[in-house]
Amino acid sequence: MKIELSFCLRHKTNCIKVNPVIIKIIIVLLLLFILFNLFRALFIMVSGRDKGRPMSHYLGRRVLFSVVVLVVVIAAFKLGFINPNANPTTHIQTQINTTKPHQQNASTKQQLEKQNAFWD
Description:
- The chain has helices at about 20-45, 55-80, and strands at about 5-10, 15-20.
- The protein is mostly helical.
């Protein structure tokens, strides 16, 4: 079952069909690229390598692509390509007590455990 959403510009003839799975794959790939840049900066920081690009280059890329992911998620939500989860307050869970209280008397009351400091 293939679900496609269409986004129509001014006229109905200019429709863009987008599969929500494609948007989710793009977001996951961007997040993986962010992690790659983060670990690349960590490697440069730990190794203390002065040659090549500085650590701030990879950290800057990480921040830039984090902003890109945020913009993509907000745009996809606003354009209707992805739907958020339902509000958790709409689901009301009621607890039903299925246990029945019973009368305790001397014969059904649990005895306290006796503890001995020495083994018998």
